[in-house]
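Work Package 4 report. The design task specified in the project plan requires that, given a folded chain encoded as structure tokens, an amino acid be chosen for each position. We show below one input record used in the internal validation round.
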């Protein structure tokens, strides 16, 4: 479970990591990013999850074998680089994106 704070209403609630991940995917779609989970083990190529351009389209390629918590962290880090103020995001999810600290940041 991820603890989500909604400062606009003074609420704290828990959201399943899978639910949080789905919200992040929906935000990615708003930016025209397709999230594609792939089996990196089957490729025999040393690949990592991340944002790339494939045939002029933004695609976040995600290792489908990663734990959901890691998927959330990777996708959230990507989304933090986007102009989040330009789109509607559920306040609790926006708060999560604004307050989470990522390694090296």
């Amino acid at each position: 479970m991820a603890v989500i704070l909604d400062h606009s209403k003074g609420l704290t609630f828990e959201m399943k990591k899978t639910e949080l991940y789905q919200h992040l995917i929906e935000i990615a779609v708003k930016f025209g990013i397709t999230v594609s989970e792939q089996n990196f083990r089957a490729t025999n190529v040393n690949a990592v999850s991340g944002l790339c351009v494939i045939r002029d389209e933004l695609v976040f390629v995600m290792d489908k074998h990663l734990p959901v918590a890691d998927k959330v962290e990777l996708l959230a880090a990507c989304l933090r680089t986007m102009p989040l103020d330009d789109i509607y995001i559920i306040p609790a999810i926006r708060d999560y994106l604004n307050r989470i600290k990522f390694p090296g940041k």
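Residues 2-99 form one domain. Validation will be extended to a larger panel in the next phase.
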